[in-house]
Amino acid sequence: MSQEKHRKLIIIGAGPSGYxxxxxxxxxxxxxxxxxxxxxxxxLTITTExxxxxGFEHGVQGPELMEKMRLQAERFDTxxxxxxxxxxxxGQKPFQIRxxxxxxxxxxxxxxxxxxxxxxxxxxxxxxxxGFGVSACATCDGxxxxxxxxxxxxxxxxxxxxxxxxxxxxxxxxxxxxxDALRAERVMxxxxxxNKKIEPVWxxxxxxxxxxxxxxxxxxxxxxxxxxxxxxxxxVRGVFIAIGHSPNTSIFGNQLDKDEIGYLVTRPxxxxxNIPGVFAAGDVQDRIYRxxxxxxGTGCMAALEAERYLNELEGAATRI
Length: 320
Hints:
Layout: E1 4-12, H1 16-27, E2 33-35, E3 49-50, E4 60-61, H2 62-75, E5 79-81, E6 85-89, E7 95-99, E8 104-112, E9 116-118, H3 124-128, E10 134-135, H4 138-141, E11 149-153, H5 157-166, E12 172-176, H6 186-194, E13 198-201, E14 204-212, E15 217-225, E16 231-235, E17 238-241, E18 245-247, E19 278-280, H7 292-319
């Protein structure tokens, strides 16, 4: 049976930004609620070793890090709701959140921490070898391929940036692109052309990724020439898919300002959106860094700003 509940503060999303926001909000005695969605923990739940999150000198498994954050948020009286949001109504006060279960929640302040989803090629090997040589984040996982050969798939700024970053560690980067020219900015292309560690594989698409997660992980990438149809296996130990990310913003429709890609737009040096009382944190508004630590930082900011907003609301109500 559906029900309607009201909370001062609701957080949509249970990744590093959502959990951090809950920790700060809980410590401010706001008793926040997190609506966790389909993948509590976000992208880190499909990440194996996280070596760049401060406080873990020997690294930490992605799911373990998210579990620790969840337990810490619960310690400060955060209510976890296992449900998925289907619609958010922001044109009224309090804000209304409708869920897949039929339950409806209302709140005075809302923190959006729904994250972004990496775009994948859609071949079965991606899922089978994810975390065993297949990744969508060179910054996160590049260090693990020190001295080895890897492949980057894509032709835009993200692909070239990841290829250049990987040359700090790896022996060689094969940049696989379906066309004979890149879409990246010219200055990025020039940097790539000057880097002897990067070898473009033009007019080619990924046909398969070879390897066994139970043994050595990725061993090769199989590419097909789009003109000749010729298939070639290139020996690599890592494959980085760099064809972009999609911010998870569809449930908000056109109620919030977005950029041309769909990321939520926030005020400079703030997590505030164009609607007072609505804040955005993490990858849903960060198209540049997309790191767990930066997501956590904006989650902290969002909670502090939400607390300030709620205090101002209460003060205004008292003065009336």
